[in-house]
Amino acid sequence: MDLNTIIAVASAVAALLAALYASVQARHAATSASIAFQDHYERHESMQAELIDGVAIEDASKRHIVALACNLINRAAAPNTIAAVELHVHQFSEDGFASKLVLRPMTTGLPPIWNFQPFPLPINLAERSTVSGWVSFHIPDNFATKRTIDKYELIFRNTLGHRAAVELHLLRRIENGEPCS
Hints:
Largest sheet: 5 strands, mixed
Shape: elongated
Strand content: 35-45%
Structural class: alpha+beta
Radius of gyration: 29 Å
């Protein structure tokens, strides 16, 4: 064999070894990327809200209050904080025009209902945990009496802007502490 043939064979073997090494490294990189993606997904997995019960209360002073008991579930492998809670009331006026009322939760004068504690704001959720509580909203009199309410939408927003929502169309009614039919 001449020198050119030996150099060509050595170059071919070196190229084959380089291709094999690149293939192994590409496989390792793909595995690492998949692990990183899975870790990111688990850390930022969604939160979920589940409705336990909901009531519309008219107390002795004729205040209209909507109280909703919920479970908040943090599915992420990292802690999560709920920074805002809102109730969106979708309604129709006497003329048939649709509108939406956005309410913040009541913090004082809460009616004593259920065995749950009211949700404190902000709501801190540990990783992969569930908390239960209730939140109350005062519905202004002109909205509670003169409009047809289509649905209630309870929205929880975390510090990253992600949201969990619960929609409901019917509420049990309680007037002066007694259930209504």
